[in-house]
Amino acid sequence: MKIGRLNHVGVAVPDIEAAKATYAGLYGADEATQTKDFPHLGVRVAFVHLANSEIELLEPLGDDSPVHKFLERNPRGGQHHLCFEVPDIVAARDAMVAKGATVLGTGEPYIGAHGVPVIFIHPKNSHGQLIELMQEPA
Amino acid sequence: MKIGRLNHVGVAVPDIEAAKATYAGLYGADEATQTKDFPHLGVRVAFVHLANSEIELLEPLGDDSPVHKFLERNPRGGQHHLCFEVPDIVAARDAMVAKGATVLGTGEPYIGAHGVPVIFIHPKNSHGQLIELMQEPA
Question: Where is each VOC domain found (chains A, B) (predicted)?
Answer without folding.
Answer: 5-136
